[in-house]
Structure to design on (328 residues):
């Protein structure tokens, strides 16, 4: 059984396969998830991940069950009066083992990545990360579908400008693995830790991609074909709003910055975007902006990913790719 908590949970062949399978299922409308029930548990708000994936699962004949995270992840709220020692409804192990008897997968958006690791410890069904504080691997799958649709197999340089967290980490990890020159520009105080940098360096040793840390957004733009943005204030960081924003001065993505890029450059953003904060309206609404194509692809790649994880883990990937090409 395979979980998908981070990009590294899939081999390169599996990433390519999930993208191909997504393509195929989206065209053929096959009911690959018939009789499949997926539990959705979201600790934070979501539009694209939640709705896009639910539509994908529905279109493939599967079903989604939504559960209140308070009831699922420890059940903290069950008593009108607190009872010492009895303040949780049941142990997470019991909840997860019960769900494993009925459902085929759990799709969870959590504050702490540790929560997903704990779910995996107890689960007999695949856990799929719908975003944690550290990773957003499904977003990266959709983004590389978008990049391939735009630039075919050309390994264009891609630079993320902003905060070094979930979306950026998964994008950079997948990019290096798939052979792209990846860049990052952002304020040092919200940049990568030494451990993250060592991890990227390590990935570069084993894969064809590269990683460059740019001091300034302008320096990044000059050598990037794709500029990628995300909010400066992530969900759960609202209290840090003022303190954090001050440090991002000079990292807004605007038309002037985009003009420094080579011709045919594109802009990407995972959304939600804060118009006028990390990126201007002109850039979000420009012909070179790929934001709605990315959003559409969130739905498309969910098809391949859920089918692969919940229905097909036991088949040899290379054989499956061959079979798929024959079907095409
Ligand atoms: N990009 C993304 O994950 O969007 P949502 O937060 O709306 O799911
Ligand atoms: N970094 C953002 C991504 C939202 C999809 C957040 O965690 O809120």
């Amino acid at each position: 059984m395979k979980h998908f908590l981070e990009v590294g949970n899939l081999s390169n062949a599996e990433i390519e396969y999930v993208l191909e399978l997504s393509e195929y299922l989206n065209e053929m409308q096959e009911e690959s998830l018939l009789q499949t029930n997926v539990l959705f548990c979201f600790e934070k708000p979501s539009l694209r991940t939640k709705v896009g994936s639910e539509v994908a699962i529905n279109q493939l004949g599967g079903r989604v069950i939504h559960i209140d995270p308070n009831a699922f992840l420890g059940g903290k709220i069950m008593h009108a009066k607190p009872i010492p020692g009895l303040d949780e409804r049941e142990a997470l192990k019991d909840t997860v083992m019960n769900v494993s008897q009925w459902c085929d997968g759990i799709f969870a958006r959590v504050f702490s990545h540790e929560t997903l690791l704990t779910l995996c410890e107890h689960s007999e069904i695949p856990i799929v990360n719908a975003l944690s504080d550290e990773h957003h691997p499904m977003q990266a799958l959709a983004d590389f579908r978008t990049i391939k649709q735009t630039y075919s197999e050309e390994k264009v340089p891609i630079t993320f400008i902003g905060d070094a967290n979930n979306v950026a980490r998964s994008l950079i990890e997948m990019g290096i693995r798939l052979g792209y020159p990846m860049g990052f520009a952002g304020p040092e105080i919200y940049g990568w830790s030494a451990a993250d940098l060592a991890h990227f360096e390590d990935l570069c040793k084993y894969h064809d991609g590269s990683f460059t840390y740019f001091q300034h957004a302008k320096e990044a733009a000059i050598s990037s074909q794709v500029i990628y943005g995300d909010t400066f204030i992530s969900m759960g960081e609202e209290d840090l709003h003022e303190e954090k924003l001050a440090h991002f001065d000079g990292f807004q993505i605007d038309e002037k910055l985009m003009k420094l890029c080579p011709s045919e450059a594109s802009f990407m953003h995972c959304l939600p975007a804060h118009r006028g904060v990390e990126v201007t309206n002109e850039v979000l609404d420009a012909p070179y902006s790929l934001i709605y194509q990315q959003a559409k692809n969130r739905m498309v790649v969910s098809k391949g990913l859920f089918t692969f994880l919940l229905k097909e883990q036991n088949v040899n990937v290379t054989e499956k790719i061959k079979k798929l090409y024959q079907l095409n």
Remarks:
- The first strand starts at residue 37 and ends at 42.
- The chain has a mean pLDDT of 93.
- Residues 120 and 310 are 15 Å apart (CA to CA).
- The beta strands are 37-42, 63-67, 105-109, 127-129, 158-161, 181-185, 210-214, 226-229, 266-269.
